[in-house]
Amino acid sequence: MDMSVICALGANLSGDQGDPVDTLSAALCELVNKDFSLVSVSRFWRTPAYPVGSGPDYANACCKLQSPSDPRATLDAFHDIEAQCGRVREARWGARTLDLDLIAYGNIVLPDLQGFAQWRDLPLSRQQSIAPTELILPHPRLQDRAFVLIPLAEIAPLWRHPVSGQTVRQMLAALPEAQKAAIHPV
Q: CATH number for the domain including 137?
């Protein structure tokens, strides 16, 4: 049975597919080629690189899709598409040709509530220097990122975080206005 998945897409370097907007479009096509069913796709948004000064602005979007695979296989498929688009993992949160983040897979929490909370509550300095070795779901920092929540609000404003219970609208409303004001449609 297919499972509902939320994916955040981002790119801020040109690659074989063209500029970042072209790359996001190509990635959406590749998702379909890998047997994902697209349910909805947000507009593309221009967002400042995070952390500040880490590279050119990003093109970002979110999509809802149905996955024929389990969470790990879904993430592996995302990584395959990133590699096809020239993604090289050199620096955490560095510039990239494509980033496909598995934001949520149904209402699954992985590895468990305690493991999720550990990554969600990790101080920023540690977030920048270490990466999890296991899949964490939902994405532990989605509630902190306007570049995810603004496009996600277009396609799933009432989706509820399986741990906090907050909707996308509520998480977006809680962010500082300055963070949201820096994001514009492409």
A: 3.30.70.560
- 101 - beta bridge partners? 8
Q: Which residue in 2, 46, 80, 87 is the catalytic one? A: 87
Of the residues 19, 99, 120, 141, only one is catalytic, namely 99
Instruction: Say whether 99 is catalytic.
Output: yes
Instruction: Using a cut of 0.85, tell me whether the model's pTM lies above it.
Output: yes
Active-site entry in 72, 80, 96, 144: 96
120 is a catalytic site residue: no
- pLDDT tens across 139-178, in order? 999 999 999 999 999 999 999 999 999 999 999 999 999 9
Based on the residue annotation, tell me whether 101 is a catalytic residue of this protein: yes
Query: What's the number of domains the chain is made of?
Result: 1
Range(s) of the domain holding residue 157: 3-116+124-185
| Spatial separation of the C-alpha atoms in residues 130 and 145, rounded to whole Å | 18
Closest to 60 (Cα-Cα) out of 86, 27, 30, 89: 27
